[in-house]
């Protein structure tokens, strides 16, 4: 009886050991493609710094479909009517990239701002959110400090100043 019990336990242990050896172990940093479409943004939040009330900030969020099927963005919800979204309308194939552009109009806004865009898509992970954050100062007392390093500053025919850096723009009306 003892021999039968020892034999049964030995066989069970050998079976578990054999099964454990056949299971492949992936390193912790190994990346596997998600089943279905999967959206992955390069950045989730853009800080536009301090701007004057009435300035318009535009930023482009870049994303990649890291899944195995085409990704389709159906809609982008915004937290406020002051933010206007635009996005890649065509399906984004696996391994390819697309964009979500957000334009924030600070007219009527004062203080710290956090404008959230909810990206509705067929991603296996569900909706994704990106945001624009920064401070809007009173136009009468503030100076624009949102000119990033390595920027191009120019004025158009209407006297509006345009600043562009890394796919971001800030437009301000110049006072005469």
Number of helical stretches of at least 4 residues: 1
Largest sheet: 7 strands, antiparallel
Average pLDDT, all residues: 78
Helical proportion, percent range:
10-25%
Give the N-to-C terminal Cα separation.
Answer: 102 Å
Instruction: Report the portion of residues in β strands.
Output: 35-45%
Number of strands: 11
Structural overview:
- The chain has one helix at 2-22, and strands spanning 39-41, 45-52, 56-65, 73-78, 83-87, 97-105, 111-121, 128-137, 152-155, 160-165, 168-173.
- With 176 residues, it is mainly beta.
- Strands 1, 3, 5, 6, 9, 10 and 11 form a seven-stranded antiparallel sheet that branches. Strands 2-8-7-4 form a four-stranded mixed sheet, with no helix packed on it.
- A hairpin with a 2-residue loop joins strand 10 (160-165) and strand 11.
- It is elongated and about 85 Å long.
Key structural traits:
single chain, mainly beta, elongated, seven-stranded antiparallel beta sheet, four-stranded mixed beta sheet, 176 residues, 11 strands
Compile the SSE list and pairings.
Layout: H1 2-22, E1 39-41, E2 45-52, E3 56-65, E4 73-78, E5 83-87, E6 97-105, E7 111-121, E8 128-137, E9 152-155, E10 160-165, E11 168-173
Parallel strand pairs: 2-8
Antiparallel strand pairs: 1-3, 3-6, 3-11, 4-7, 5-6, 7-8, 9-10, 10-11
Task: Provide a concise account of the structure shown.
The chain has one helix and eleven strands, in the order αβββββββββββ.
């Amino acid at each position: 009886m003892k021999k039968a019990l020892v034999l049964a336990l030995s066989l069970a242990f050998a079976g578990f050991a054999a099964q454990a050896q056949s299971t492949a172990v992936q390193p912790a940093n190994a990346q596997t493609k998600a089943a279905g479409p999967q959206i992955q943004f390069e950045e989730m939040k853009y800080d536009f710094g301090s701007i004057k009330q009435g300035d318009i900030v535009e930023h482009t969020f870049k994303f990649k479909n890291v899944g195995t099927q085409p990704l389709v963005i159906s809609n982008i919800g915004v937290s406020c009517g002051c933010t206007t979204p635009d996005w890649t309308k065509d399906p984004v194939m696996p391994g390819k990239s697309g964009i979500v552009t957000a334009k924030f109009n600070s007219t009527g806004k004062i203080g710290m701002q956090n404008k959230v865009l909810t990206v509705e898509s067929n991603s296996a992970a569900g909706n994704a959110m990106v945001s624009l954050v920064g401070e809007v100062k009173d136009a009468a007392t503030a100076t624009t400090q949102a000119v990033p390093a390595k920027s191009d500053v120019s004025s158009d025919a209407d006297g509006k100043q345009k600043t562009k850096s890394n796919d971001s723009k800030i437009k301000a009306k110049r006072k005469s």
